[in-house]
UniProtKB/TrEMBL annotation:
Protein name from the UniProt record: Uncharacterized protein
Skewed-composition ranges (Basic and acidic residues): 49-125
InterPro entries: DUF6481
Location of the region described as Disordered in the Swiss-Prot/TrEMBL record: 49-136
Compositional bias of kind Basic residues: 126-136
Source species, domain of life: Bacteria
Amino acid sequence: MRKTKEQDFVERRKDAMSAKLALLERFKNRPDENDPEVQARIAERKAIAEAREQRQKEKEARRQAKLAEEARLKAEREAAIESERRAREEEERREAARRQAEELARRADRLADDAARKAARDARYAARKARVRKIG
């Protein structure tokens, strides 16, 4: 039984060594940078990278345009809300001025009525005094 384990270990060691050698051989046999296939792969990768960069720029431009549109719409909404608020405040000021004018008119009417009543009372008093003096 011990012999099988040793053989397994030796086989594993041999397999690992052959894998390392194959990897080294593959590294040594790789094509040169001036090889047309390598140049084609480099150009393809470069084209893919440029296309990706262009798509990212377009995406960013669309995002910026969307943000600008949202900002414009928000500004329009805020302007509309502000103009409605100003109109409402102006209407409230007009209404308050109208109520104040009505109140002043009522007070003026009341004062005029009070003055008319006082004048009528004074006239009655004067007439009574005149009658009393004629009699006496």
